[in-house]
Amino acid sequence: MGNYPLHVEAHHDERLSRWLWLVKWLLLIPHYLVLAVLGTGSVVLTVVAYLAVLVTGRYPPAIRAYNLGVLRWGWRVAYYGYQALGTDRYPPFTLADVPEHPARVHLSAEDQPPRWLPLVAWLLAVPHLMILSLLYGAARRQHVPLSFLGLLVLFCGVAVLFTGRYPGGLHDLLVGIGRWNLRVIGYLMLITHRYPPFRLDQGGSEPEPPPVAPDRLETPHTAGRASAAGPVAALVTGVLLLAPGVGLGVVGSGLLTLESQRDSAGYVTGPSVRLSSATAAVTAENLTITDAALWGRDVTDIGALRITATDAAGAPLFVGIGPQSAVDDWLAGTAHDEFADLNDGTAGYDRAGGVVRAVADPAAQPFWLASTAAPGTATIEWTAVRGDFAVVVANADGSPGVTANVRGAVQLSDLSGLGGGLLAAGLLLTAVAIALITLGGIGLGRRHGGPPPPVQPPPVQPPAGSPPQAPPLSAGR
Question: pLDDT tens digits for 241-267?
Answer without folding.
Answer: 999 999 999 999 999 998 898 888 888
